[in-house]
């Protein structure tokens, strides 16, 4: 991109839970908004990925949305859409703490700059930063596994990221693919208005005990271990098991949770298994998860042999100038809030070590 390059201490990329938490702590620890810190966000408005969630995702059906540091999300109406509540909360939060969010600004690349700096290249000019906190989430990288025949399917295929609610699928024959929390939630609502089949690679694991602090810590520890070893992270939710909520129990009553093993291929009219069984379908709904949105970091060549990034706390072991908040073990609202504090402390220590900030 063209135009001038602005020198700055820290750029935070992304204004979801992870980016806002990081920015809050960086200001609290002394950075001056705009002069020393900017937050660049690709979306049109506040809310991070929550502004894109389907309307039928209500506050009663979200897992739990942790508070951002320093301001409570006051008990909202259970029937309100998360896509309304969270963006409103984030907007109020940005205003209250004067967070220097620039939007819409899309970061296309972060690369090695001069004098040990990182260059942040965007569609609205470039920044040269001493440290970068990356908090770009996963929403923009829906994962579609490949099965043979995919292009031949005459019906409609959509991903969780495209889902807008059950109404558009009413009366159709829908194959829901995936064993995670989103698959089960969408299956519960779609099966009420459509003829559904549920397909998963592995038998789903239901959580019988309530999900308490201890279970949460254990789940996070598993993901932490993976990223420390440089393996790609599994989602935190994928290691916590599936919750039998009232809506899901109702789907079970309807027989909608009779799970089929993964099909082998896709045909023009549906899906087919290796043993010759077939199932006709109008729609395939891929609830197959997301990957970390890190394409813009490719010039830094962070990925190792294990396919993931070897992490040490919230930064790649090889690069303390960069923090990945909301990645791996901190890919939940509570994890992101906490990791933002950790990253902010480390960044301030790094800036101090390197001879202090320009005052
Ligand atoms: P996001 O909210 O995705 O924010 C990332 C931001 O970065 C966005 O604003 C985006 O515009 C911006 N961005 C991305 N790429 C660029 C770029 N190149 N340049 C500039 N900006 C960029 N967690 C929970 O704790 N509780 C729940 O109930 C829950 N429900 C979930 C439901 C679904 C369907 C999904 C998919 C996830 C859910 N999660 C839940 C996990 C949830 O995604 C995280 O907890 C959290 O919201 C992620 O915050 P984040 O800040 O990391 O990312």
UniProtKB/TrEMBL annotation:
Q: Does the keyword Oxidoreductase apply?
A: yes
Q: Name one Pfam family in it.
A: Pyr_redox_3
What the entry lists under InterPro entries is as follows: Auxin_biosynth/cation_transpt (IPR050982), FAD/NAD-bd_sf (IPR036188)
Keyword list, A-Z: Oxidoreductase
Residue intervals passing through the bilayer: none
User: Mind telling me what this protein is named?
Assistant: NAD(P)/FAD-dependent oxidoreductase
Q: Which organism is it from?
A: Motilibacter deserti
